[in-house]
Amino acid sequence: MDLDLIINNLVHPPVLFFFLGMIAAFCKSDLKIPDPLPKLFSLYLLLAIGFHGGVELRKTGLTQEVVFALSAAIFMAVIVPMYAFFILRFKLDVYNAAAIAATYGSISAVTYITAVTFLQTLGLEPGGYMVASLALMESPAIVIGIILARIFAPKKKNGENEFSWRAVFKEAFLNGSVLLITGSLLIGLASGEEGWDTLKPFTKDIFKGMLSFFLLDMGLLAAKRIGDLKSAGFFLPPFAILMPVLNGCVGVVLAKLIGLQPENALMLSVLCASASYIAVPAAMRLSLPEANPSLFVPMALAITFPFNIIAGIPLYYYLITRVNELIPALWG
Hints:
Layout: H1 3-10, H2 13-26, H3 36-60, H4 64-88, H5 94-105, H6 109-121, H7 129-138, H8 140-152, H9 165-174, H10 176-205, H11 207-225, H12 236-258, H13 262-273, H14 279-287, H15 293-326
């Protein structure tokens, strides 16, 4: 793999701010982002990428490529938590296996954004409809994780497991992050380029600055959470690296089969390889209180997320270009 890809990705300012946050935490600095701001940053990022995706989707229209890409995204959001669950069951109980499987079946919007900036450094721009893929992949994994736990969990003495399907579906489809990115996409779809020009100073010009602040906070949080994995033994840390690589490779193959262009193939692969540390933990806390958040949150945030932004994104792009060179006929 070309080391320049990794180096260029590492010296991107938002990524460097992530590591500044980790260094600050490891050095026990008093650096801290005031509590309300990280929430504001995450809401801003979801609004901006959703709105931009809607505008781009309006330009593209509902073509065969778009339908294939969205179908592939939904397929992966359903199938990944299934095979992840059965791998995890070798070492974990049903509840923790289901929660971690849902984590790796869902996506990370910030990893997606980092991949977009990676492509921009190469002079490439992914199709806006890939944001719709991001929005569609957020919820299915949560539902699949809950269903797996429901099927395989030991029955309680009264014969029923105490949870509400209504609450599960509400959390999966109406939680704040899903609602905001889906709603922003629809607003961008409705308003088009005229709406984009109206909001451009807000949704584009300050985007990377807001992303840098968000990743600085993520670095602080990741460094603080990484110690929680000490009790997990030697199984989960390698899983947190090997599972995204496997999912990313499946995404590369799938993108090839449906004929996505390299930049869109990378976005699909990154979505497949990323893990949720916002929506899924919120849903699991509500639906599977037996699962231990100190396992699946640090795995996604302190291992998989840094791995993807350091090596994963360049690795998936390298694999896509190699496949493209070896089997060029299917592209386009």
